[in-house]
Design brief:
The protein has 8 helices and 12 strands. The chain is α+β, with helices and mostly antiparallel strands. About 40% of the residues are buried. The structure holds 2-oxoglutaric acid and fe (ii) ion. This is Fe2OG dioxygenase domain-containing protein.
Length: about 325
């Protein structure tokens, strides 16, 4: 990884996005139906349908600091690389013969932490798959920060998990927290961090790496596999999330081609739940003609998302 490039790239965020960013870390949230530089209508959305449900989609553009983004990305890439055999092969070869590589594409935040696309074992997606050119892994155990060369990250994750609603599974989650995030006696955990979650619950956490030429077609996450809340953390290149009204017609998902687009920048977090989770399809647009914001094309680049979902009580028990 070329850290020099990281510092350099930070100064070169694309103008369209840079002008939208506030100066520092902020927990200001944006809704779909109120005016925001990060949200635009797509088609002619029915805002009435979301009346009183503002909280069903929340967007925090600056949820994580630059340092926190780097730590989370290290964690995600560490896990993704462990399950990517192509990546492991490439890495061994590179370590023995080549100096560290600079960025391959784009000028977005964190691109310096990625290698060229050809070094990764991206899946092409199957004929019925909604996602193309990606790597994915469930994160079930959290490594000791020293293993991934990162500072303690439990408090960063805690801020994410604390956004999930309380559930009957809080005891189990507390155990998971101690076992996986804070191994007993872990020397780098300060007493202040060594506290149980206030609002824990059973969760699943996925890391999803989308190649610059990857994209996700409209879909509703499997309603049998997880609960009512989906949290998405964005790390890396800017992408557009599209939310469109959708209805299930037997096995067919009918898309109404109206809803909202949300500009997802690095360090942002979104929450979709209830009406948005079930009555809208979501997609990540490909780069190119569709990925234009304020008349400026988004610069293609790698993006990793951390997807946190609550586990349905009947699945968890
Ligand atoms: O990367 C994202 O923000 C969305 C991912 C997604 O839709 C999924 O994993 O089901
Ligand atoms: Fe999804």
């Amino acid at each position: 990884m070329g850290l020099f490039y990281c510092a350099y790239r930070r100064l070169n965020k694309p103008t369209a996005v840079r002008i939208l960013r506030t100066a520092g870390l902020s927990t200001q949230s944006h809704h779909l139906t109120s005016e925001s530089p990060y949200v635009r209508a797509f088609g002619s959305p029915n805002a009435e349908k979301l009346k009183g449900k503002d909280g069903d989609f929340l967007y925090f553009p600056d949820f994580f600091s630059q340092a926190e983004q780097e730590t989370l990305l290290k964690l995600a890439l560490w896990k993704l690389d462990r399950v990517d055999s192509r990546r492991r092969r490439r890495r061994r070869r590179k370590e023995s013969t080549e100096p560290p590589q600079g960025p391959s594409v784009g000028s977005n935040n964190l691109q310096c932490m990625f290698d060229p696309s050809s070094d990764y074992g991206f899946e092409d997606g199957h004929f019925d798959s909604v996602i193309t050119r990606y790597r994915e892994s469930l994160i079930t155990a959290f490594p000791n920060p020293s293993t991934i060369g990162a500072p303690s990250y439990s408090s960063i994750l805690k801020r994410v998990y604390d956004l999930l609603p309380q559930s009957a599974g809080s005891e189990l989650a507390r155990d998971l927290y101690y076992d996986k995030v804070l191994p007993e006696g872990s020397p780098e955990i300060s007493p202040a961090l060594d506290q149980p979650f206030e609002q824990p619950l059973q969760t699943s956490t996925h890391a999803l790496h989308l190649a610059p030429d990857g994209y996700i077609l409209p879909h509703v996450d499997n309603v049998d596999a997880s609960g009512t809340v989906i949290i998405g953390v964005s790390l890396g290149a800017d992408r557009i999330l599209r939310l469109e009204e959708a209805t299930q017609d037997g096995p067919q998902l009918k898309i109404a081609h109206k809803g909202w687009d949300v500009l997802l920048n690095s360090g942002s977090l979104y929450i979709q739940k209830d009406s948005i989770r079930y009555e809208y399809a979501h997609s990540i647009l490909p780069y190119g003609d569709e990925s234009v914001w304020n008349n400026t094309q988004l610069v293609p680049g790698h993006r990793v998302s951390l997807m946190v979902r609550d586990i349905k009580p009947e699945v968890a028990s």
